[in-house]
């Protein structure tokens, strides 16, 4: 089956109902008929095996342990299912497979890939419960090296008690409490936008830089506990404003935050520029609540903003063993940082490149008129930093 297509539901009604349940639950899963031919695979599993970049192909109708199924899965790129995972599966499921295949061990040996033949020789027809779990190694649904996973196997029965097939659900080796901790506070829309940029490439986007002014004196004045709590509140407020505006949260560095508003996810360059400006305004407003919760005066929490446009930013998702974050490279990223550093006094400075992306409707929604704006080169600002004069003196900006 081609990568772009969703698997059709199995022809058997019982297996089809099982497929619907697995699909609607968002599971990593697949289904085999009573002859151990692959009849269904969820898009969640196919997407993860394709590292979020594509739906991997599925060898529908092929024996799950046959040569074609093995070759297809070994061709799943960096999310490939490794040979050891097949060996683990056949070792665990072998008694069921042996019991279901007419002709017994000799017939099964003819069906499986030769690289699995030694597993068939060692199988014994022991009884298994109708549902059980087993560990699986050698598969990397997130890329990189193999990671520990668990697989739950369940027999699927017809109403008259006959075996209709077998359903397998794959899951991370961590428990639900860990998964909930990682995902419960996240935003589903943001996770989806992150997945859309799993493949790094050039993407036009608005860039937002924000940083807390006079953070060093504030850190000396507050206790370590109080300052940590303040930083956490600030980061949460920033991320909420960015996500609510449809942006992608970038790296947090100290008291600063970076965000990207992609034209492809916003719908247009104008919409991305509008979202960037809106997020800056929302975050400035959110600082009043952060100050109140931190028992600080509003003037103690002043953010400066630098807003810029990157026509050829190289944007992608960086996933490591310890974290996942959006990263971008390009001259405009450095220029955005220079703009932010010049925006002392709690100003939000936007570049001419960003402002002129705004179409009339989006500009009006922000109460801005790009045709009547007067710009100032960074080098001419009284607050211009040495780095701004050196690296980006001619970038024209205005307050928004």
CATH class of the largest domain: Alpha Beta
What is the overall pLDDT average?
89
What is the architecture of the largest domain at the second tier of CATH? 2-Layer Sandwich
Q: What's the arrangement of strands in the largest beta sheet?
A: 8-9-7-10-13-15-14
Low-confidence stretches: none
Main sheet overview: 7 strands, mixed
Report the strand count.
15
**Percentage of residues in helical conformation:** 25-40%
CATH superfamily of the largest domain: Nucleotide cyclase, GGDEF domain
Which overall shape is indicated by the principal axes computed on the Cα atoms?
Answer: elongated
What is the structural class?
Answer: alpha+beta
**Rg calculated over all Cα atoms:** 27 Å
Please provide a written account of the structure.
The chain has two domains: 13-178, 2-Layer Sandwich (Beta-Lactamase), CATH 3.30.450; 187-399, Alpha-Beta Plaits, CATH 3.30.70.1230. The relative contact order is 0.09. Helix 10 runs antiparallel to helix 12 (269-293). The chain contains 16 helices and 15 strands. Strand 8 and strand 9 form a beta hairpin. It has 400 residues and is α+β, with helices and mostly antiparallel strands. A seven-stranded mixed β-sheet has the order 8-9-7-10-13-15-14.
Brief summary:
By secondary structure, the chain is an alpha+beta fold.
């Amino acid at each position: 089956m081609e990568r772009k297509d969703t698997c059709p539901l199995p022809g058997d009604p019982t297996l089809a109902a099982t497929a619907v349940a697995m699909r609607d639950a968002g599971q990593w899963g697949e289904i085999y008929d009573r002859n151990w031919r692959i009849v269904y695979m969820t898009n969640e599993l196919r997407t993860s095996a394709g590292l979020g970049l594509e739906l991997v192909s599925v060898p529908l109708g092929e024996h799950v342990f046959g040569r074609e199924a093995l070759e297809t899965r070994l061709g799943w790129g960096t999310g490939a299912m490794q040979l050891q995972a097949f060996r683990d599966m056949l070792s665990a499921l072998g008694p069921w497979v042996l019991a279901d295949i007419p002709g017994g061990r000799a017939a099964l040996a003819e069906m499986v890939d030769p690289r699995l033949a030694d597993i068939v020789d060692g199988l014994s027809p022991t009884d298994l419960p109708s549902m059980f779990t087993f560990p699986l190694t050698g598969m990397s649904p997130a890329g990189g090296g193999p990671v520990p996973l668990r697989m739950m196997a369940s027999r699927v029965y017809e109403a008259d008690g006959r075996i209709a097939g077998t359903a397998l659900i794959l899951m991370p080796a961590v428990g639900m409490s860990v998964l909930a901790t990682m995902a419960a506070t996240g935003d589903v829309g943001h996770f989806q936008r992150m997945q859309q940029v799993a493949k790094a490439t050039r993407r036009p986007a608005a860039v937002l830089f924000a940083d807390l002014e006079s953070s060093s004196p504030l850190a000396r004045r507050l206790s370590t506990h109080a300052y940590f709590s303040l930083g956490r509140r600030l980061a949460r407020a920033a991320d909420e404003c960015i996500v609510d505006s449809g942006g992608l949260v970038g790296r947090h560095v100290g008291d600063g935050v970076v965000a990207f508003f992609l034209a492809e996810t916003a719908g247009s360059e104008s919409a991305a520029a509008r979202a960037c400006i809106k997020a800056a305004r929302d975050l400035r407003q959110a600082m009043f609540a952060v100050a109140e919760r931190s028992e600080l005066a509003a003037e103690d929490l002043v953010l400066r903003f630098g807003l810029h446009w990157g026509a050829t930013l190289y944007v992608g998702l960086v996933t490591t063993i310890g974290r996942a974050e959006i990263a971008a490279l390009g001259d405009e990223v450095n220029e955005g940082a220079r703009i932010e550093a010049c925006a002392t006094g709690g100003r939000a400075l936007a570049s001419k490149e960003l402002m002129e992306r705004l179409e009339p409707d989006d500009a009006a929604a922000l109460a801005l008129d790009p045709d009547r704006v007067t710009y100032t080169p960074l080098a001419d600002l009284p607050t211009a930093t040495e780095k701004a004069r050196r690296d980006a003196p001619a970038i024209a900006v205005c307050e928004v």
